[in-house]
Design brief:
The protein is of the alpha/beta class and 230 residues long. Helix content is 39%, strand content 23%. It has two domains: 117 residues, Response regulator (Rossmann fold), CATH 3.40.50.2300; 100 residues, Arc Repressor Mutant, subunit A, CATH 1.10.10. The chain is built from eight helices and twelve strands. It starts with a strand and ends in an 8-residue tail after the last strand.
Length: 230
């Protein structure tokens, strides 16, 4: 997935770019509005993250110009402007989502994936691999030693979130947001605990383990017996 990151804060752009690259995106950085407009109108991208406070040409102007030539390009606005009129204006100008700074990367990734799904594209890298489990993010199909794993829709979303954050804690709030961003309400009877329990059983022969981190959430890790020697 080709992603344009339009952000003038070099430190944030560098850190966020590294995280997005690790999640499977190919990143190009635009430090100001004119560069962002040029790249988005002359090169082919699957999605863009656009800061509203860009120098030389603000992000909203960039968005309006880009929408004239690329009306279907998924664009996620990233900004520190926490005002209702700013959100409404951005969405009316063609933004597919609006995220406030500071933000949690897991939430940003889940929202990017949700926007890509709504646009009919794949999400991040085409395939995730951990332990002996392969997960195709576009089709939401999992394989363990070439044998398919029967996953429900929510289990697939949960597995996607866990595999993009291997060795990192994923909170219940992040799971709920990933489910809701996929267009589903999270009912009282569909708790994270139930789905994690079921997913544990389905991937128990994959060399992976889902640990419960009490008071925080869940963590996917490769079991020691499956780790490759250094």
């Amino acid at each position: 997935m080709q992603l344009l990151l339009a952000e003038d804060d070099q430190i944030l752009a560098s850190g966020l770019g590294a995280l997005l690259t690790a999640a499977g995106f190919t990143i190009k950085h635009a430090p100001n509005g004119p560069v962002a407009e040029y790249l988005l109108t002359t090169e082919d991208y699957d999605i863009a993250i656009l800061d509203l406070g860009l120098p030389m040409m603000d992000g909203l102007t960039v968005l309006k110009k880009v929408r004239q030539s690329r009306p279907n390009l998924p664009v996620v606005v990233l900004t520190a402007l926490d005002k209702l009129d700013s959100r409404v204006t951005s969405l009316n100008a063609g933004a597919d989502d609006y995220i406030l700074k500071p933000f949690d990367f897991a939430e940003l990734l889940a929202r990017l994936n949700a926007v890509l799904r709504r646009s009919g594209q794949g999400t991040g890298s085409a395939e995730l691999l951990a332990g002996d489990l392969r997960f195709d993010r576009a089709s939401r199909r999992a394989l363990i030693h070439a044998s398919p794993v029967d996953l429900t829709r929510r289990e697939a979303i949960l597995l996607d979130l866990l595999m993009t954050q291997v060795d990192k804690v994923v909170t219940k709030d992040q799971i709920a947001k990933a489910w809701s961003e996929d267009g589903n309400e999270v009912g009282a009877g569909n708790t994270a605990e139930v789905h994690v329990h079921r997913l544990r059983r389905k991937i128990e022969n994959s060399g992976l383990a889902i640990r419960t981190i009490r008071g925080l959430g869940y963590l996917l890790e490769v079991e020691p017996s499956n780790e490759q020697p250094a």
